[in-house]
Amino acid sequence: MNSDARTRVMARVRGACQGNSATRIEEELAALGVAPAAALPHEDTCIAFMVNVLRNQGTLEVAANRSDAVKRIGNYLYDHYRSHRLVAGNDPRLAAMPWRDGGVLPRFGELEAGEQIALSHADWGVAETGATVLLSGKHNPSRNNLLPEHHVVIVDVDTLLPDMESMWQQVNPVLERHGRPRGIYCIAGPSSTGDIEAQLVYGAHGPRAWHVILLGEVDPEKLDMARALHAGAAAGASKD
Amino acid sequence: MEQHSQQFLDNASTALADAGGVAQRDIMALFAPLLRDAAVEGFGNFEALRQHVKRVRQHSLDNLDYYLARFELEATNNGNQVHYAETAEDLNSIVLDICQQHGARKIAKGKSMVTEETGLNDYLQRGGLDVLETDLGEYIIQQAGETPSHIVGPALHKTREQIRDLFLERHDLGERELDSIGELVGEARQVLREHFLQAEVGIIGSNALIAENGYSMLITNEGNGDLCANLPKVLIICTTLDRVLPRGEDATAIQRLLARSATGQPHTCYTSFYSGPRREQDADGPLETHFVLLDNRRTDILASDYRDMLRCIRCGACLNHCPIFAASGGHAYGWVYPGPMGSVLTPLLTSLEESSALPNACTSCGRCAEVCPSDIPLPDLLRDLRHEESARGLTAPAWRYGLRAHAWLAARPGLYHRLTGVAINLLHRFGKRSGAFSKLPFASGWTSKRDFPAPAGKTFMQQYRQRSQADE
Known about the structure:
The structure holds two protein chains of two kinds. By secondary structure, chain A is α/β, with parallel strands linked by helices. Chain A has one domain (45-239): Rossmann fold (3-Layer(aba) Sandwich). Chain A contains eight helices and twelve strands. Chain B has helices spanning 8-17, 19-43, 46-62, 64-77, 88-101, 113-118, 120-126, 136-144, 160-170, 181-198, 224-230, 248-262, 298-302, 317-320, 323-328, 339-349, 352-355, 367-371, 378-391, 397-410, 413-431, 444-447, 460-471, and strands spanning 81-85, 106-109, 130-133, 201-204, 208-210, 216-220, 234-240, 244-245, 270-274, 288-294, 436-437, 452-453. Chain B is globular and about 85 Å long. In chain B, 53% of the residues lie in helices and 11% in strands. In chain B, a hairpin with a 5-residue loop joins strand 5 and strand 6. Chain B is built from 23 helices and twelve strands. Chains A and B meet through helix 1, helix 2, helix 6, helix 7 and strand 9 of A and helix 2, helix 3, helix 4, strand 1 and helix 8 of B. Chain B: GO terms for molecular function: 4 iron, 4 sulfur cluster binding; metal ion binding.
């Protein structure tokens, strides 16, 4: 670091600031309160999350248990690639899945050239944005999130959060307890671009498809409700 | 980047003569506001969010010394090297030094208006490096040898046919169909994927720096910025020191404002937070990470009456709602930042002498201030800059003396009413027959394009007084 440049910049910044004490600054900040979050499409966090995943152009399935999840992943692989292979990070949650139940052959590690589908396990899902939240680490190589053609993400229904403030309430203690991971990824859809004539195209640089598997006891009516809300909103938008 | 802001009027005339470009901009000016309005309505209480973020940004800027020092400490503890660049040239040379220290040849670059401001690409290329923009829009204009026309959609001025011809010329991929936008995107994906995998250094910008934990927030749809941040062995984040916010929650509050205001999306596909180099337990990621924090006169803005401008989050809403931008296009502004935000920022980051045309590229309609997610009083700042121009003698003498005469007269209401009464009466008499003037002295700017309607025989004040008396 060029310390002269730093000293001069800091002096100019200080010259333009009020020189308040740390205590006063923190008090002022606390008094500013919390930002309002976006209105959810449904008061139920789980339904709201599912609606927003669909709005994000994700595809969605609900799996009652791990065996069911594996079967659904197996079907997804077969439907898209007539294959039973995928790559997954060294995540204990993924290693413990009953892969034989779905006839799936996972390879644990980083995505390599030619591999089309990667599986990740999200730490949380955020209803406000329909995003899956993942922390970087050995269990979650970033290549697996960014380079496959299809990115399949498992989210536990118990880890769904209403908004981004509640996401930070979960993330901050993890940062304090386990140190700060290199990356926190909020992934909300397949990679897209509108850079040519403002026309939206999926599969810009990252995955062309983003498939979310919600794992846990979810009333089937909730999925129906989410699909109906999504379809209703889409129909309303096209009428406008 | 070379500056041509003073040629704004000539540039705008050229842009207006291009019928295809005008039609394209008209469509954008029609649809972009509709998309933004729908997204804002879908949010709920957007105004409360806007005011909350405004207060947080004001608080952060008022105490930037505290938060900047905190960010630097946390970022350093996270394993980053933090550099300060006082000028554009400083930023460029810091980045080139880092690349050369690593013997890098290939650089993958994410979208960054800051590095457009400093002209980093040219600088690195002169240093012998192979720099490739990876945001699709930026990639297109880099291949075409052009500059961005819009801060969010840099290549929106180009048609798919132009991009097709450009790709056929630039990519040595043999005979192929490239008729659809999907095929164009697919080809760019294929070409850029190879570059991503080979690049030794990744360069990205930042949407916010978080003081409490030293993370940097990156918001993208394409995921190209994340590939730049994760695949090469060295990562350089180029941003400005005013981006610092206190908490993670404040960064995500900005995320709520940004996509809705920029593209009408509720959020983008990727919102990522990066803390530093690869950790011991990590499977991948850069081995070395740097922050380069640019000042380039932002501390002067912080100390000035234009501090509000530092709240800008670069969403482009003011561009999309500006009638002047819609008519003239982004290139007319002659530098990096176009539209209302650019007309304020350009004189402050360069000089009023080099860009005095820009604060006048405004009809004072106020739409920019209405939609600005940071509630920046853009028309007021533009007026203040015009005032400064006049005070510093940068406007044409006839204009200056004319304004001075008007100010003198307007400060004497009795005389003003008498004189305007006489003038209106004269215009009424001369124009009574045809009802309009096709020529008028001192008003050729108006009458060269359209007739000037003949006024009613009495001024507003005369009629007001008469009616008030009649009512009594």
